[in-house]
Structures are given as structure tokens and as C-alpha cells.
Specification:
The chain has 372 residues and is mainly alpha-helical. It is built from 14 helices and no strands.
Length: 372
């Protein structure tokens, strides 16, 4: 069988939906990107209190980066055969292309880190995760989910073991393996790969994924909030690292380690809950958008345009922040960034097709993996 190949750079120029492309996945990517922008510059609340609508913006803590990682797994699955990954020798070329893309993404991430903004850049971890899933591209979905469960179980233990290695580390260092723990985020990518392997085109699969993601998230957060409620002193907590207040009993500390519902806590509840939310969002977007006709495609186009060039939009907003005289931190600032991202993506896609950084990554992969 033939393997999935990237579309030409101009394939999406001036069209609503490129042939074979899942516009709902692009919409989900846009939600992840805009959510990450909100976490960076939106002046959002620290913790969600569902009785206080003023705190609801705190859902942007942790969940957008998780959605971004799950979508990384979905992207890997979509570009490596969707529900039917190829066997040898074709799978070798797929792995080679993904490996090259991963290295370029890491390089772009390091360049963004060099701008020294206060933002924790996810791209180096994102690229490393692409490399880590290469051996399991042909693994069945059920085994991918089981591997993700193993990662979720050991996630808090690895996070707490690694944290002392970063004592005294600066902003640059903590972005490499601490804020975005590799084992934790590997669980998300494996879940996304399993989602792609199950299939996102069929309505039955979309509904099943929406239901399973919702149930998993609701159950995880119910258990976490009942057994390990978020302490009031989480201002002292660090992203990616489990946290228990000083003076906690051994049982309370253990509960916080494994069951905390705090975003970016690396607990089992955090991993299962945020992964469930991400799966539900991806399934809902594909259910509402894909195969619904041209009217829906037109309505979704602004967000789909953003999601079709995630690397460009993500890198672009960090570059803009680095160029500003002061750090933006308000809902109004986020609104301007969101509007600017949508207008840029729509214009670029209409006239030039694929995003500039997406073109760069694909071009390097083509050059490196071309037959000699």
C-alpha cells in the first residue's frame, strides 16, 4: 500500500478543505493554540471555581498544552497511514521523515527559547516525543492505550525523581524535561496516536471517542477532587512537578502525588483527566465540522486556517512577544493576538497555502529523505 505523503505547499491555497484533510482536527489545533496563548498572555485565573464564572478562564491552565500534545499523536497517526500503517519497507521512510521533522521542530524550539521570553516553550519536548513514538507506529490502538496508562502511572514518580536535578536551574533549563515532563507528555502523544488509529472519519468512532473522553475526564476529576483536593497554597507549586504543602501527612502527600487534579501536576488524575478532555475536544470538533457541507466548512475556516499552520502560529506569537517593549498580560492582549493569528492564517492560506514553517519542515524532510 502507499503511505501518506505531505500535500504540496500550495495544496490548500484558496480552498476550504484540502482533499482528505480533517478540518475538525485543524479546528482542535486552533483551540489548543489559542488556549496556550491565553495561558501565556491572557491574564487568566489561577484555579477554576465553577461557582464563580470569573475563574472559568483557568481551564486554559494545562489543558491546551495537553490538547496540543494529543494532537501531535493524531498528526503522527494521520501522516503514517491513519487506520492502516504500512509495513516494511514503506514504514521505514515514514519513520525517517518523522525523525527529520522532529529534529527541525526541536531546532525551532531552541531558537524560540533563545529569545528569552518568560514563556515555557513546548517545541523541544514536542520534537523529542515524535522521536519516541517512532518504534510504536505499527502497534495496535489497544496496546498504545495500555502504554499510555503505564506512562500515566509512572508519571508522578518520574517527575518527583527528576525535579532535584533541576535545583538552581534557570528558565532555559527547566523547559527541557521539567515543565513538560517527557513521560507525562508521552502518554498524551500515545493517546493521540491511538485516536488516529481508531479512525476519526467515521461518525460512530467520533461519538465513541467523545463519550469515552468525557467519561474518563469526569471520573478522573471526581476522584481527584474527592481524595486530593487542590491545596490553597498552590502558588508555591511548579508546573510539571507534584506538590504537597509543608506539614502534609504521609497519606495526604501520597494522595497529592498520585491523585491531584491540579493542572500540570503530573499526577495520574491530571494525565487521565486532561487526556480525556483532549480526546473529547478532538472528537467533538470532527463530529461537528467534518462532512457537514460547505456552509459548516466556511464557518470553521477561520479556526481551521489557524490550525493548519500550528508551528507557524505558535512560533509567531512568541516572536511577537519578544519584540514588544513590555510583556502583555491581559484578556485584551490575548484578544488582539487571537484576532491577528486568525487574520494572518486566513490570508496566508488563501494566497500561499501551507504555513511558512510547515513548508520549511516539509522541505527539509524531503531533502534529507530523498532517494540518492
Amino acid at each position: 500500500m502507499t503511505t501518506a505523503r505531505p500535500a504540496p505547499s500550495t495544496a490548500m491555497r484558496g480552498v476550504l478543505v484540502a482533499p482528505g484533510r480533517l478540518q475538525g482536527v485543524d479546528v482542535a489545533r486552533a483551540l489548543a493554540l489559542l488556549g496556550m496563548m491565553a495561558a501565556h498572555i491572557g491574564g487568566i485565573a489561577d484555579e477554576v471555581d465553577w461557582s464563580d464564572p470569573g475563574t472559568w478562564s483557568a481551564v486554559a491552565h494545562g489543558r491546551p498544552s495537553t490538547l496540543f500534545a494529543v494532537l501531535a499523536g493524531v498528526s503522527v497517526g494521520l501522516t503514517s497511514g491513519r487506520t492502516s500503517p504500512p509495513g516494511p519497507p514503506a514504514i521505514g521512510l515514514v519513520r525517517a521523515r518523522l525523525a527529520v521533522r522532529a529534529i527541525v521542530v526541536v531546532a525551532i524550539g531552541l531558537a524560540l527559547m533563545a529569545l528569552e521570553t518568560p514563556i515555557y516553550v513546548i517545541l523541544p519536548t514536542y520534537g523529542a516525543l515524535f522521536l519516541l513514538v517512532l518504534p510504536v507506529l505499527r502497534v495496535r490502538p489497544v496496546w498504545l492505550v495500555l502504554l499510555a496508562v503505564v506512562c500515566a502511572v509512572v508519571s508522578p514518580l518520574v517527575a518527583i525523581a527528576v525535579a532535584p536535578l533541576y535545583a538552581g536551574a534557570g528558565t532555559w533549563e527547566v523547559q527541557l524535561g521539567l515543565v513538560y515532563p517527557v513521560v507525562t507528555f508521552l502518554a498524551y502523544v500515545l493517546v493521540g496516536l491511538a485516536v488516529a488509529r481508531v479512525g476519526l472519519e467515521a461518525r460512530r468512532a467520533q461519538v465513541a471517542l467523545l463519550a469515552s473522553g468525557t467519561v474518563a475526564a469526569a471520573a478522573a476529576y471526581a476522584v481527584g477532587n474527592a481524595l486530593a483536593p487542590v491545596p490553597a497554597s498552590t502558588g508555591l507549586a511548579f508546573p510539571g512537578v507534584p506538590y504537597a504543602p509543608d506539614g502534609s501527612s504521609p497519606s495526604a502527600a501520597l494522595a497529592q502525588l498520585f491523585l491531584s487534579p491540579r493542572a500540570h501536576s503530573s499526577s495520574i488524575v491530571d494525565v487521565v483527566g486532561t487526556a480525556g478532555v483532549a480526546v473529547a475536544v478532538v472528537a467533538l470538533c470532527t463530529l461537528l465540522v467534518d462532512g457537514r457541507g460547505r456552509l459548516v466548512a466556511r464557518i470553521a475556516y477561520p479556526l481551521a486556517a489557524v490550525g493548519s499552520m500550528p508551528l507557524t502560529v505558535y512560533a509567531g506569537h512568541i516572536v511577537v512577544i519578544a519584540c514588544l517593549p513590555g510583556y502583555p498580560d491581559s484578556g485584551a492582549a490575548w484578544a488582539w493576538f487571537a484576532i491577528g493569528s486568525v487574520l494572518f492564517a486566513m490570508t496566508w492560506r488563501a494566497f500561499l497555502g501551507r504555513g511558512p514553517l510547515e513548508r520549511l519542515v516539509a522541505w527539509v524532510a524531503d531533502v534529507v529523505t530523498a532517494p540518492r
